[in-house]
Amino acid sequence: MGHKKLIRFRAIATYGNVLQYPENMPGTWHEFFKNENPITLELACGKGEYSVNLGREHRDNNYIGVDIKGNRIYNGAKIALTEGLTNVAFLRIQIGQITNYFTKDEVSNIWIIFPDPFLKKEKNRLTHPRFLHAYQQIMKPGGKINLKTDSKELFDFTMETVAAQNCVLHESIIDIYAQGKAVGPLAIQTYYEKCHLAEGRTIYFVSFSLPDAPIELTGRFSKDEPNDDQDDAETPDADNDNEQ
Q1: Is 116 one of the annotated active-site residues of the chain?
Q2: Which of 105, 116, 156, 212 is an active site residue?
Q3: pLDDT tens digits, one per residue of 195-221
């Protein structure tokens, strides 16, 4: 592990807005934030650009960036602390274990921003039915799941999953910039989005809600396969992507 990473891991261990594998959290998040405001998750948050920016704009909502990579969480957590954004926090866990940290109806909305599309392992995609099944255990009815991606494969897969699981589709956009849809939350640009736009990639967006009926883990989705997520303490080069 590089010297900079060690410094950042030591720093987030002292940050009051970063929780690493915390115990006894389900049902207590409103106590943590000291209010009853709605909670939005940013999954695979990286540097937490969405959590920080949404937290700035909507002080009457709470935002939690979730990621396994503490080296990246450091960036958003430090900004939130510096700016006094008490409605922004970060949770360092494996997303596949999300139900261990939230209880039923505790989460209002979810943002998934430029996640790994896992082109060869679709079961690891964050809009795979096994993840939707987990989200269904913690989200309020009608809560929105928002995906922003440069991967047509992930976008198409998500649209197929939304239809197959009888989810409620709120919005589907191919090329948000060409259609003039990069406004409000969609105008927030992450580190990765800026890189993708510089390369001329198309940016896709889909927003949907989960059905009232349970998500079906049948057919090819029925096998209980192990989660491939790995703690970056076990993979020291996981964050070696030249980010500043």
Answers
A1: yes
A2: 116
A3: 999 999 999 999 999 999 999 887 666
